Amino acid sequence: MKVIRTLGIAAAALIVSTGVQAEQKFINVLTGGTSGIYYPLGVALSQQIGKALPEAKVSVQSTKASAENLNLLQAGRGEVGFALADAVSDAWKGDAEAGFKQKLDKLRGVAAIYPNYIQIVASEESGIKTLADLKGKRVSVGAPKSGTELNARAVLKAAGIGYEGLSKVEYLPFGESVELIKNRQLDATLQSAGLGVASLRDLASTMKIVVVPVPAEVVEKIGDSAYQQGVVPANTYEGQTADVPTVAIRNILVTHEGVDADTVYAMVKSMFANMDAMVAAHSAAKGIVLEKASTGLPVPLHPGAARFYAEVNKATK
User: What is d(CA 123, CA 250) in angstroms, rounded to the nearest whole number?
Assistant: First the structure.
């Protein structure tokens, strides 16, 4: 009888153990290229989520950024991801030209975070100083269907150039674009990222650059409220001695409806409770403002995130 009882206890323990294993959360953080800003911020976010949810297995995935992240979230192949506001809006509408064959109706908002700045940077020796000077030049516009590439389409169209006005269009991530400019195989790169992105700092430290201005009238011609006037402040990059007008677009942390409310609540709470760690990962995180995080989202707010913001609002009243 004692042997049977022991076996029974062991079996029960095995069932409990198996149950615990089955309930383990898997959280995949979708980012972007490793030379951009999404990736270091995604790593920092994953570390905070891991501390808040010690039972979870948290991983970070480098991707082609916005469009890929949103499609992966719709397919349930990620739990939280970074994306540009205009890409999220296109995904929610199902804009095929932007890379979304159908409405991505499972997407849910977590937080509006820091703004991206469209930074058009050319080698000084290319002679490019204005948007008009890009005509007939070799330009990288970002990975295909990435947020950067969608931004490039919008800006170049509004400037009256379009891809057809360029002598060569390369669809490359940030780091590869910079390497081609260094090797004199490209004249300019358009990168939609936070200020001080590593790839452009690297380029500016290697050769003389020009940050090409995007005038206010071009921003207005884009005709999308996601695109706002912005400024690349003087000395953001080596040799850039004056402020440069450009376009600013907010980034958004996105999840999907299949992620439970407690998990999303823990995600957003852990991020805002550890903003010093986010800023340490990249200075762009200084643009993450709690008071603006739940506003202007092009997709519905996830219930878990809504609970967090409701608690914050209640505590501040």
Answer: 27
188 CB burial (10 A radius; 0-12, 13-18, 19+): buried
Q: Are 275 and 282 in contact (CB under 8 A)?
A: no
CA dist 33 and 174 (Å) reads: 7
- Whose CA is closest to 125, among 183, 168, 61? 183
> Structure pTM?
0.79
Rg (CA), the chain: 22
pLDDT digits (tens, 9 = 90+) for 266-298: 999 999 999 999 999 999 999 999 999 999 899
Q: Which one-letter DSSP state was computed for residue 167?
A: S
- At 295, the amino acid letter reads T
CB atoms closer than 10 angstroms to residue 272:
16
Alpha helices, DSSP H, located in the chain: 2-22, 38-52, 66-74, 85-93, 147-158, 174-182, 198-206, 216-222, 261-273, 275-281, 303-316
The answer for residues whose C-beta is within 8 angstroms of residue 91's C-beta and 6 or more apart is 67, 70, 71, 74, 83, 98, 100, 103, 104, 107, 299
Tell me how far apart the alpha carbons of residues 106 and 92 are, in angstroms, rounded to a whole number. 9
Do residues 254 and 88 make contact, with C-beta atoms less than 8 angstroms apart? yes
Task: Check if the beta carbon of residue 293 is closer than 8 Å to that of residue 113.
Answer: yes
Neighbours of 177 (CB within 10 A): 28
Q: Which two tokens stand for residue 5?
A: 């009882």
- Note the pLDDT tens digit of each residue in 116-150: 999 999 999 999 999 999 999 999 999 887 889 99
| Strand-pair category, 107-123 with 209-212 | antiparallel
